[in-house]
């Protein structure tokens, strides 16, 4: 479920990173870089995405200018890209679990700091579009307010100083390796939420590695626990996805004995990058058949080592025959658990059936049952 050292430590404050931890900026940055590089006759292919995670804007610019051999200075590139980024900050979305975490911690008067390698002006602009965030942080510290950004510990030490709390009593939550390195160098506890897919093994310095903020357990760090789980499920702000049923990997019915109704990921790369890998549930509408309970996995299926992120819903109903090509619409209403690896096929199958039982039971709860009548399931446009 998560990779964690057995001993946890009570903390008194939480220091949060921004980009990739609380907000989803990768897609915005990629779109801007793609447009800007076209002016130079270059094509952004995303190969620098892993290199620039957690870097300062100047460091990011240096990587792009160098790797693409652009005929401009780093400062000139920053000057060109900055207004393009500002135009997109209004479109940045909070990552799943971010609003929940901030509201929970601030509501329990846990001292909160925001520590980001971004310049102060970037931070102020980004969080201005996220309701209630600015006032939730006792301290906000930016990369241009310290001599060295992450992986230097300076930004974290300065945050602890402004919070008036010993560094060893602070918990850092970070998505990048530079952030994890800086947090540990500051003698703080660190929870990593990797933003780069399938890179969990690189975060060995962190005290805990989780798949998403949905999986954070504050009580392990002496903080007030979340109280919003219902019968093993976490209610979510609902989201929709749909398309024709396509052939999958041929392992659902044949290998697992579980007939999944696979959806193509084409056109959904941005949506899938926003939602963490894991097991979800909700309602499924088939254009010619009706509405059914559904549990599904989104992710890389580490047991089968997928090379792409997939959507694999299981409609909890016995059908006569398959329905390839039929329009399938899903309303996702809740979350069950993060993606996990398994040592045996039997343990994987057992877990999938446990997920099914949890979903079937939960979907009878009025909170979830009401979405069975969502117009989207019947074919209405959003």
Describe the structure concisely:
The chain has 13 helices and 14 strands. It has 382 residues and is an alpha/beta fold. It has three domains: 13-23 and 92-221, Rossmann fold, CATH 3.40.50.1000; 25-91, Putative phosphatase, domain 2 (DNA polymerase, domain 1, Orthogonal Bundle); 234-378, Elongation Factor Tu (Ef-tu), domain 3 (Beta Barrel).
Structural notes for this entry:
Its EC number is 2.7.1.26. Pathway: Cofactor biosynthesis; FMN biosynthesis; FMN from riboflavin (ATP route): step 1/1. Keywords: ATP-binding, Flavoprotein, FMN, Nucleotide-binding, Transferase. The protein is α/β, with parallel strands linked by helices. It contains 13 helices and 14 strands. The protein folds into 3 domains: 13-23 and 92-221, HAD superfamily/HAD-like (Rossmann fold, 3-Layer(aba) Sandwich); 25-91, DNA polymerase, domain 1, CATH 1.10.150; 234-378, Elongation Factor Tu (Ef-tu), domain 3. The strands form 3 sheets. The protein has a 7-stranded mixed sheet with strand order 1-9-8-7-2-5-6, sandwiched between helices. A 5-stranded antiparallel sheet has the order 10-14-11-12-13, with helices on one face. Strands 3-4 form a two-stranded antiparallel sheet. Strand 7, helix 9 (177-185) and strand 8 (189-192) form a beta-alpha-beta unit. Helix 3 (57-67) packs across helix 4 (74-88). It is globular and about 65 Å long. It starts with a strand and ends in a 13-residue tail after the last helix.
């Amino acid at each position: 479920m998560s990779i964690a050292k057995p001993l946890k430590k009570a903390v008194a404050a939480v220091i949060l990173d921004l980009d990739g931890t609380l907000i989803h900026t990768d897609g915005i940055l990629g779109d801007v870089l793609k447009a800007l590089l076209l002016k130079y006759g270059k094509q952004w292919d995303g190969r620098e995405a892993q290199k620039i995670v957690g870097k300062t804007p100047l460091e990011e610019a240096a990587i792009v200018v160098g790797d693409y051999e652009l005929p401009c200075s780093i400062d000139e590139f920053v000057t060109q890209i900055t207004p393009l980024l500002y135009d997109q900050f209004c479109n940045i979305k909070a990552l799943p679990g971010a609003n929940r975490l901030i509201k929970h911690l601030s509501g329990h008067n846990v001292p909160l700091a925001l520590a980001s390698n971004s310049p102060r002006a970037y931070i102020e602009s980004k969080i201005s579009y996220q309701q209630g965030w600015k006032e939730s942080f006792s301290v906000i510290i930016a990369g241009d307010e310290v001599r060295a950004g992450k992986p230097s510990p300076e930004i974290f030490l300065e945050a602890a100083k402004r919070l008036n709390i010993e560094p060893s009593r602070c918990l850092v939550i970070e998505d990048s390796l530079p952030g994890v390195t800086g947090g540990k160098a500051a003698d703080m506890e660190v929870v990593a939420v990797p933003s780069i897919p399938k890179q969990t093994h690189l975060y060995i310095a962190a005290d805990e590695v989780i798949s998403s903020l949905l999986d954070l357990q504050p009580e392990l760090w002496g903080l007030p626990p979340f109280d919003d789980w219902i019968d093993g499920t976490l209610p979510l702000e609902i989201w929709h996805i749909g398309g024709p049923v396509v052939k999958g990997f041929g392992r659902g019915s044949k290998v697992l004995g579980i007939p999944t109704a696979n959806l193509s990921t084409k056109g959904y790369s941005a949506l899938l990058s926003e939602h963490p890998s894991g097991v979800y549930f909700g309602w499924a509408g088939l254009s010619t058949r009706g509405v059914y309970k559904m549990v599904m996995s989104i992710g890389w299926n580490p047991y089968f080592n997928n090379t792409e992120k997939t959507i694999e819903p299981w409609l909890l109903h016995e059908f006569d025959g398959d329905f390839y090509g039929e329009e399938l619409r899903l309303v996702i209403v809740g979350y069950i658990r993060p993606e996990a690896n398994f040592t045996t096929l039997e343990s994987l199958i057992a877990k999938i059936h446990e997920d099914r039982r949890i979903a079937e039971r939960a979907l009878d709860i009025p909170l979830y049952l009401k979405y069975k009548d969502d117009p989207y399931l019947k074919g209405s446009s959003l």
